[in-house]
Write a structure and sequence with these properties.
The chain has about 260 residues and is an alpha/beta fold. It has two domains: about 5-200, 2-enoyl-CoA Hydratase, Chain A, domain 1, CATH 3.90.226; about 205-250. It contains eleven helices and eleven strands. The chain has helices spanning about 5-10, 35-50, 70-75, 110-115, 145-150, 155-165, 170-175, 185-200, 205-215, 225-235, 240-250, and strands at about 10-15, 20-25, 55-60, 80, 85, 100-105, 105-110, 120-125, 130, 165-170, 180. The strands form three sheets. It has a six-stranded mixed beta sheet with strand order 1-2-3-6-8-11, sandwiched between helices. A hairpin with a 2-residue loop joins β1 (about 10-15) and β2. The radius of gyration is 19 Å and the shape is globular. The model has no long low-confidence stretch (mean pLDDT about 95).
Length: about 260
């Protein structure tokens, strides 16, 4: 796939130690094409490989997040999946860095599944979040049917899946699905504020904390303390842990080394 097509449909911009990834197909409601999926995978590779980058923010151009899979392309036989990331290059990808979704307008179908693949969600008031796949004869197989029942009440997740009707950003916030609400047009700005709050912390501690929360849902009770210790103990023995303690005592900002 041509690099210029990926660059046209998905943009990456570095803002300090934050990588902003923008799906840029507003004429197609930021629906996911093969170029978007490939570009997203490359963006996540960049985020993981660059030690200067701590957080990734995923958003959409033109006043909305994403309407999901490009159904015209799907009908023509195109599949916006990658080998490592699955749909959109992200829904099956586990990253060590923190990901934040910044939603304007709507995050529907695969668009919501992209947001659910992120660790934190910021949404503009009035935005709609939903999985309407059943309305077009499809299944929300990009993670929504797995993730929603773990994050919101079971019966509401079932209602969203079976009726295809969306919920508002405000309701999603009340349910705990959305971390922060923003005024319309300000979702990216608020997401960047949140990203900087996260990025101010120690990289090793962030990675271990995220990994513990994500992986612990698969741990059995008899193993959970041992498994947690395997992730936490290297952090306690790190230079950053010593620096954090010294900075606290000396009342100064810490200088993280990621080691």
């Amino acid at each position: 796939m041509a690099d210029d097509q990926k660059a046209q449909e998905l943009r990456c911009e570095q803002d300090g130690n934050v990588l902003v990834v923008t799906i840029d197909r507003p004429e197609a409601r930021n629906s996911v094409s093969p170029a978007v999926a490939s570009g997203m995978e490359e963006a996540l590779d960049r985020l993981e490989a660059d030690d200067e980058l701590t957080v990734g923010v995923v958003t959409g151009a033109g006043g909305y997040f994403s309407a999901g899979m490009d159904l015209r392309a799907f009908a023509a036989g195109e599949r916006p999946f990658t080998e490592r990331g699955g749909f959109a290059g992200i829904v099956e990808r586990r990253t060590s860095k923190v990901l934040i979704a910044a939603i304007e307008g709507f995050a529907l179908a695969g668009g919501l599944e992209i947001a659910l693949a992120c660790d934190l969600i910021v949404a503009a008031r009035g935005a709609r979040l939903g999985i309407p796949e059943v309305k077009v004869g499809l299944v929300a197989a990009g993670g929504a049917l797995l993730n929603l029942p773990r994050r919101i009440p079971y019966h509401l997740a079932m209602e969203m899946a079976l009726t295809g009707e969306p919920i508002s950003a405000e309701k999603a916030r009340d349910l705990g699905l959305v971390n922060r609400l923003a005024d319309p047009g300000d979702a990216l700005e608020i997401a960047l504020v949140l990203a900087r709050e996260v990025a101010a912390n120690a990289p090793l501690a962030l990675a271990a904390s995220k990994r513990t929360i994500v992986e612990s849902r698969d741990w059995i009770a008899a193993e959970e303390w041992t498994r947690q210790a395997e992730l936490a103990e290297p952090v306690f023995g790190s230079a950053d842990a010593t620096e954090g303690a010294r900075a606290f005592v000396e009342r100064r900002p810490p200088s993280w080394r990621g080691a």
